[in-house]
Sequence to fold (830 residues):
Amino acid sequence: MKLHRTAMSLGLATLLCGTASAETLRWSSQGDVVTLDPYAHTESFTASVLHHVYEPLVRRSRSLEIEPALATSWEIEEPTRWRFKLREGVTFHNGNSFTADDVVASLERLMHPDARARGNISGIARVEKIDDLTVDFHLEGPHPLLLNELSGVYIMDREWMEEHDALAPGNVSTGTTSYASTNANGTGPFVLDSYRPDMGTVMSVNEEWWDTPEHNLTGIEFRPITSDATRVAALLSGELDMIAPIPLQDIQRVESADGFTVEQEPALRLIYLGFNFNEHLHAMPGEPNPLLDERVRKALWHGIDHDALRERIMRGNSRTVGIMVAPQVPGYEESIDQPYPYDPEQASALLAEAGYGEGFTVKLDCSNDRYINDEQICVAVKAFWERLGITVDLTTESRSTFFPKVDRGETDIYMSGWATLPAMDGFSVLHALLATRDGSRGGNNPNGLSDPRIDELDVSAATELDEEARRAMLAEAFRITRDKAYYLPLHQQPVAMAVREGVSVPQFADEYVRLWFATIGE
Amino acid sequence: MLAVTAIAFAMFRFVGDPVQLMAREDASIAEREALRASLGLNDAIVIQYGRFLGRVVQGDLGISYRNQREVLALIAERAPATLELVLAATILALALGIPAGVLCALRPNGVLSRLVQAVSLVGISVPTFVTGTFLILVFAVNLQLLPSFGRGQIVDIGGWSTGFLTPSGRRALILPALTLALYSTTLIMRLVRSEMIDIMSTDYIRYARARGLPARRIHFRLALKNALMPVITVTGLQVGSLIAFAIVTETVFQWPGLGLLFMQAVIFVDIPVMTAYLLLVALVFVAINTVVDILYAVIDPRLRERAG
Fold:
């Protein structure tokens, strides 16, 4: 019988003797990597972990700007043809060198009808190899978000895929699983050593990395821990160096413990309330829908005390907003980012003016396990609105039943969140939330919101290559949204992580973990 | 078994829509529709169920929506962790429960046995996640003696991964096994206690006492041996429920077994995994009940005669 130790050094034994290796970073999160196949999933957490092994043509810098990675430069030759120059001298972890063939094979694999992540790119007709270090992207039309999309496309090695029969992406529907689901071979700063679902993923440093490391790690051990209490306990007991994110309810406890720090900042994810724009409300069938009246929607906005939400429920850690995107996201404009002030009298006046001085009945639907304090926020919103004389019928439920319900348009007012990921661009809000729903757009606009000017902007912004003009279009759409109170943005929820003393890891608003910027000191 | 699959299948229609969680946040409706159609979720439930049964008969449990790996492989990978945990918990429950039960039966009014009985109430009434979290707080965070999560270092032998062979693996086992064993320990202790008390008042024990046999021999050779028969039955059934209810313990300790797999499948609406898990648990119960029935017949000759 063959007996071998797994390559997984979990570090527990050494740790308990007090001699933990200083430069292996042990961290934990709630979820696990769902698969190692970069094109078989659409989950940003998994993408974030895989980014340590795989790299895209362009990546996000410390300030989340797009910067060259495997491509060194690019040129728009024609509106529908972009030329990328590839980096020379890059090798994959198995020693193969990186060339244009790999880019072509990767994109073909991603555009395969079975690839789940296919939707992360759009409008690419084909990719053509010009020479070993040059590729042309042929597009179906002018496509300003090409770079944003490519920053999420990890490049795989063609020979490796051929060797392991992994040229087709894994797919649940067709029952395809491949070698690439459990193995990885990229060009990234870390090499995958082992992967065990729900137990851990271990990586060691890639000595051959083309970039100059800003980190001083020799390895990374990722160990998912589902239970919040256990994850925090594991950090406090010294079994972990970092947890990201840290549950909000535990922030104070960790901060008060010796030798740990908590870092937090507003995330890109913006929490908002969506309205029903259909003829009737579900709460009042047969009667006209009060939410169709702009004044009613504004009254609802004036009726919420955002400062109280921030201070009491979010413990001062959220950022109150008036626009549907975070400041880092293209399309953001400070002048639109003003919430309607808390003014119950104004709200009552608006309601009376609209003919609802006696109030009305409305359903409010929320998840209770998706966003930070989602249930508490909705309870508070209900209380604010009931002060205006509105009867609010609140339902909270698990996300697995909540989101399908929202999507089927079975709600009057619902809470949701949007982070504009992976593109990190305001167009994502315009296209998915604001545009009138049909087969290809308005995917998250389930309740019949329809504004002809916004639809025009959606069409023109999709192909506008002049960045300034494009951003102006986005901003115009967001201004209309605010002026008409089409949505009621609540806040940017925070992202928070906790590290032990001596560990330094920058935190990113897109909630990605980028450990190639991490250092461990003494 | 058929009933279990049907109920499970019908039930999972209501846990939510996997497509919502599988698709990208800004997926268009057309994309989501295509995914739903390709997963066969648009067909009538009877057709879906028939298709599912057809595959199960061929030994194919499908592919996990979340992990995108074969469900059968996932279960095979996770089973060792749960079985080892259950084994350790069972041994622990027997090793603690039997002596404690004997103690309580022999000295019903002693201070120690009263204490044991009081503590055993805790074992029955406090939920598992509370005891688990409490143990973590004390032994991992405050005393820093034992790991708070995971299986430690494991060794692969063939297709079986075991934590028994490494020090860190054994250490990682202690807290979850203790948590899981608490309920069974209490149960066994109470059972042994009442059986022992009954037996101690029977004629043959009194006769043995009258003959002047040493107390040790009476208590352990004569009384305990007879008191153990029902304990074996109950332990057998407990093993089944331990496997089934390890879900909470495994979640608290991030023990990578079947319970954790199931828990995450529920969160993700991973219908293939959930169905397979329920199928497996039903199978375990059926198997254990059958074994117990056979054991009865072996142990008790009267049952055999009646059947024959």
Remarks:
- The first strand of chain B starts at residue 155 and ends at 157.
- The CA atoms of residues 220 and 263 of chain B lie 43 Å apart.
- Strands of chain B lie at 155-157, 160-162.
- Chain B has 13 helices and two strands.
